[in-house]
Please model this.
Amino acid sequence: MAKIANVALTNTFDTWRTRSNEAFDRLSQFAIDNSKLYANTITANVRFVSSQSTRLGTTGSNRTIVNGLLSANGNLNVAGNTTISGILNVNGGINLGDATTDLLTITGRATVGTNLTVSGNTTLGGASKTLTVGGSGATANATGWFGVTGRATVSTNLFVGGNTTLNGTTTDRSNALNQTLTDQATITWDTSLGRVATVTIGASRTMAAPTNLKVGTYILSVIQGGSGSYTITWNGVFKWPAGVAPSLTTTVGARDLFTFYSDGTNLYGSYLPDVK
Model:
């Protein structure tokens, strides 16, 4: 708000009365709507303790700068760009920006007591910066991209649902996984859950075409269960030397090991019988 002129001792009573009324009027305006602060730059600590929402800036072109501590017990809505060089504590909701061009820059520390939802791309860290995810019982779960330009430290388990890119190299997580297939009339193999698989058959079965095949090596271990002497009928994507599928070892508990190379469509197999 604009500065109210000083009053000198030599001024008349009317001047004193006018200046006093101006000051009272300004205070009354702020008291009527105490969710508004008529300033663009705040250099001191500011604390909003009312349960009402606090809005800094009314359009995307406005910019609010807080150099000290900003604490809001209610909702904090910022319509323009926001730069915070101290600590931001918000006990209610926080809404930053009403347009995709609005920016939030924090050079200090940001603490989020509940969930943090980011609808766009997020960059965390930089040169010599550390990103720490998780604590006791915490889980990191990301359904989209998670990009870290510096170092990421996870103090508990990190679950990755898709492929992982490290230093420009993509690693297929299925390479490091193995699985036990369900014994059923037609056995299915989702290779994205593990390129190494084991199945114990309790009757003669049909092996369906595996799903999510990629170029690479696959291993299947078949164990004779029940009374033994069971067979497998292989889908046409399984290719064998001279086009002849091998016969399974008939002994109960016997393990036959099949190794395949896939071109992404077919699996070209070799066979080690009765591995002990």
Q: What stands out?
A: The mean pLDDT is 75. The first strand starts at residue 41 and ends at 42. The helical segments are 13-32. The chain is about 5% helix and 35% strand.
